[in-house]
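Sample entry follows:

_____
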Amino acid sequence: MNASAPQHEPPDPRDRPARLTVGVVGAGRVGPALAAALRLAGHRPVAVSGVSDASRRRAAALLPDVPLVPPAEVLARAELVLLTVPDDTLPGLVDGLVGTGAVRPGQLLVHTSGRYGTAVLDPATRAGALPLALHPAMTFTGTGVDVQRLAGCSFGVTAPDELRLAAEALVIEMGGEPEWIAEHARPLYHAALALGANHLVTLVAQSMELLREAGVTAPDRMLGPLLGAALDNALRSGDAALTGPVARGDAGTVAAHVAELRKHAPGTVAGYLAMARTTADRALAHGLLKPELAEDLLGVLADGRDGCGGPGHSGHNGHNGRDGGDGGTDGRPGEEGDQR
């Protein structure tokens, strides 16, 4: 860099006039972080609604001095409203806001659901609102670190053509990168993200539990470099990055894995077998797994399935592969907007 070149400091957002008043309906992990990012871009958060104690604490931490009010009051105060509630709650929320007359003509109404495009906002659009679907492809912690992580984060964006520039501008102001998703492709787009991110958490958590069972005292330290390298290789090379006993066709090693998992962690067997079969199929298709080795390997995987009680079972005593619990916490009453 030329040392004599003039250095330009980025403008302080406090020196710029606020352009839009911003409201948040659903103070889960996502909404307050996005509103905080918009504040850094010069917009002005003016109202937030939250039900649970956790939601209220998040709002207070990320949006200090912004009042907590009912959802209808949020819409009354804000020109740009973020609807950051669980997917299954969103249609009913939109209907309720329209039914009470809370939606104003010309108001920007933004939801952050990955599943839906703008059609879910149709009742509000008919009432004059301007609909945007802006889904950040990131997991959220509900803390200030989320605002920093938005830098470079891709957003799945769906909007009417006439609002395309507005949608792009909002994403860029939050530090993100807009990626356009067609209305009909939103469920597939969201399924892809869930397959990669949500299931990754499950796999990593199971792996750490098994390492502790094997006597490893710091499984996170052991897995960090390995998983980081595997992720980097997969993003760069796709299926060519496949390694391990399945890709090599080491049927004996895979059989030993299944036996040990059945003994120590029967709840992991179904997942191991399903992923191993999928990995074998992909390795075969890409020429990584030799056909002459695949037969024995697939036989082991089939025997492992049958030995666990047939399809849908993963262990002794009728264990069906679930490690307990009745489902996730996203969408539970009183907790809004956790990123899914």
